[in-house]
Prior knowledge:
The complex is a heterodimer. Chain A is an alpha/beta fold. Helix content of chain A is 36%, strand content 15%.
Amino acid sequence: MKNRSLVSINDYSKEEIIRILDLAEEFEKQPRQQILKGKVIASLFFEPSTRTRLSFESAAQQLGASVIGFSSAATTSVQKGETLKDTILTVSNYSDLIVMRHPVDGSARYASEVAPVPIINAGDGANQHPTQCLLDLYSIRKTQGTLDNLDITFVGDLKYGRTVHSLTMALCHFNTRFHLVSPVELKLPSAVKRHIKDAELQYEQYTDMNEVINKSDILYMTRIQRERFPDQLEYERVKNSYNLVNSMLTDAKSNLRILHPLPRVNEISTDVDSNPMAYYFQQALNGIYVRQALMASILDNK
Amino acid sequence: MSDKRKELIVSAISNGTVIDHIPTETVFQVIKILGLNKTKNQVYFGINLESKKYGSKGIIKISDKYFETEEINKIALVAPSATLIEIHDYEVFKKSSVRIPQNVNKIVKCFNPNCITNKEDVDTKFEVFYDESGSLKLSCHYCEKNTSKENIVFI
């Protein structure tokens, strides 16, 4: 994977995904190693994201790399009308690897085609977010002991939620049974369902999550993201569709774990937080290890 | 008027390519897709011509030009019924139908308004596939969204 960009989770084969997860396990045991000393990582966040940005920057710094970049396009030449291509070409001169988040769909693929250095996509619009996907896979494997043959339930905004899209595609390698819970307006797009069908796997769609909680191994909750809706009325109609409360988990399987890419709003009540099934905060911590594994394998030929 | 006379409504060419059975309404799109509006070759075209098979059809004749398969297949999206005839010395040398290509580059706009190809100066690239109901879709190389046939807009 040396010097290769990661734009979409589909860029990696099943074996490559597993290799990153195995390497992440090593970093979990020892996250502070100076293996990227002397490397410069550019962190370009054209759209704000506290969690992903800090996770990347912390991961890089714990490996000894230095980090340059910006956390919002407002203070950069983008405001002066600079094109993405020009920004990327310029920053390539100053860095060994670019981590970028951008509000436009497909921007990361385009950047990877113009940049002489590898690009890690940290989210491009409503399209892909492959490192979130890797940390989700890592969390699933860690809590279930396997990735194979699980009942995985996605709840919430399956239409605009890019983490759902990436994770669904990746899980197609692992014989997953998909349970898709969403308001009718926010169903999983056909482009993503196509991957499930191509892998000859099963999915079922629901509008009520109570129907499926008790047969799930993983409950993957998502926020209904106001910023992704072209139509604010549509957002108002569906924003409070789901609210997981602790009492709904009484008869859940004991191995059930609740994941959420965070930030959450009201889709998981705070009374769930102390339930041992709640895994979303540990999940975020796992992001450090998979991002370390990824940067190390791209820059260091691990 | 004899059948022979009708054939000559659009002049015969000695060498070159005839694209026949183009739906009348897409002749100008075909001209644009193939860049014939900028060519130095002689081009004749006709629209609203009688066709036994289709009722009405368009035809384009280009002198001294032969197309690569990939190039000509681009027009399959707008003129799937088109026939391609290679003329050598006034004789039909080869006749073939157009086929929908596997990749469609630069000629179609991505349907997704938030796609990078609609925001910056980036050439579009699509992979052609058919969904479960058999309808043609274009999958964008950049934003990974699908543009369905009804939504195809040519650049």
